[in-house]
Amino acid sequence: MHQEHKLSKRFELCRGMYNACLRELLKRYTALKQSKKYRVVCKMENGKKRNKLFSELNKEFGLVEYSIHEFVKPMQHAFKKNIDSFTSQKIATRAFKAFEKIMYIQGKKVHFKKYGEMYSVEGKSNSTGIRYKDDNIFWNGLVLRTIVKKKDVYAHLALEDKVKFVRIKREWIKNKYVYYAQLVLEGTPPKKYNSKGMKNNSSTQKRVGIDIGTSTVAVCSETKVMLTELAPSVVELDKQIRIIQRSMDRSRRASNPLKYKEDGTFDTSNKDKWLFSKRYMRKKSQLKELQRLNRAKRKQDHEMLANSIIALGDVIFVETMSFKGLQRRAKETTVNEKGKFNKKKRFGRTISNRAPAMLLSIIERKLKYKSIRLNKVNTTLIKASQYNHFTNTYEKKKLHERWNNFGFCKIQRDLYSAFLLMNCKESLDEIDRDLCEQHFHKFRKMHDLEIIRLKKKGKTPISTGI
């Protein structure tokens, strides 16, 4: 209990430092934008001279990483019994990286951390500050014993590598914080062993095409065709989350009637303190636990799917997609056949739950362990969803059209796109028609078997068209 209390205190001190760094950076950035020099440089044409002047202005106004390290130093001295200098510098770096997104117009605003929202703290090296030695974590007089299972062969193999730095993480699990030591090690992860004691050797130099959507993924290789749902484990949890969120909203409205207008919208003019019932707080705790499970299950599903895809082949082709663009609401107001306005919502919730970009990042990370890159083809040139390799023509299809009719056969649209991507040229800007004709007969057989399997399965996502 004493160690838990000390850790909780230190996490809150780190949160205060992080927010202070963000406030200081925003204050300096406001001063920069108000300066005459900045306005003059903004009017200049893009080029090396303009970039150099911007760099000089950033140094002048203290908008560089090492400048914020100097700012956090007095705070660290005030709390030196709890926070070491390396950890405080890492917090300052973290705040600067968050702020940089605003400076380079990659984000609209920074988010300050509320009470209890600091979930991880890390050091810069394993020599001072937070460090790992002899199965213990040492941090400013605090000694934390780590638990490594004796039968966990993978963990013991990994711990043979050099520890670069240590990160202490905490998660809210069943109404309490659980703390973890995350060691960042040098080199690549050791290979896992299967039940027979043999290494799981994946195939090499075999082509794989991936057509990824918002809720499904189609995979085509030389030996297997697969159309599967992304993160299927999150579906049931998502329903439970929505039910609890609706219950919390009803409770919040009942406890704070003056905070809402007659039409049900939030009244910004009311500055009264929010009131929350005990029932609401219990629901909030349940929601937090479900959201944690949701994250864990989604990542687990993606890791397993990534392993099965890489086992089919190492030469993987995928289209570049802007998932952020698909999350945005539609700008144009349209009317349907009945004269009613169409919803402007697009795929925001689906992408949030299924996280397709996460799957690609996991595949890319696993390929890097073998010094192989993920082949990202040019979407505007390839147009896999529109291309017909028989006629060498492009035909634009509507979103609800899920099948390609070639006259002599019907092929599911996503699986056909994955097949085309598998037969992409090394230049990544053109489909190899010769390869398509060479492999199509085998692909069609595997495609038909996969469609039969999906039909027997019963319920499949609407986007598959099955």
Please, could you describe this protein's structure?
This protein folds into three domains: 113 residues, no CATH class; 82 residues, no CATH class; 258 residues, no CATH class. The strands form five sheets. Strands 9-8-7-10-11 form a five-stranded mixed beta sheet, sandwiched between helices. It contains 14 helices and 15 strands. The mean pLDDT is 88. The protein is α+β, with helices and mostly antiparallel strands. It comes from Sutcliffiella cohnii. This is Transposase.
The rough form would be described as globular
Instruction: Indicate the mean pLDDT.
Output: 88
| Main pleated sheet | 5 strands, mixed
List the helices and strands in order. Answer: HHHHHEEEEHEEEEEHHEHHHEHEEEEHH
Summarize the structure.
By secondary structure, this protein is an alpha+beta fold. The protein is built from 14 helices and 15 strands. The protein is globular and about 75 Å long.
Key features?
466 residues; alpha+beta; 3 domains; 5-stranded mixed sheet; 3-stranded antiparallel sheet; 14 helices; globular; Transposase
Describe the secondary-structure layout.
Layout: H1 2-34, H2 36-42, H3 48-60, H4 65-78, H5 85-103, E1 120-122, E2 131-133, E3 136-139, E4 142-145, H6 153-158, E5 163-172, E6 177-185, E7 207-212, E8 216-221, E9 225-229, H7 234-255, H8 278-312, E10 315-319, H9 323-327, H10 348-354, H11 356-368, E11 375-377, H12 379-382, E12 387-388, E13 393-394, E14 403-405, E15 410-412, H13 413-422, H14 433-457
Parallel strand pairs: 7-10, 10-11
Antiparallel strand pairs: 1-5, 2-3, 3-4, 5-6, 7-8, 8-9, 12-13, 14-15
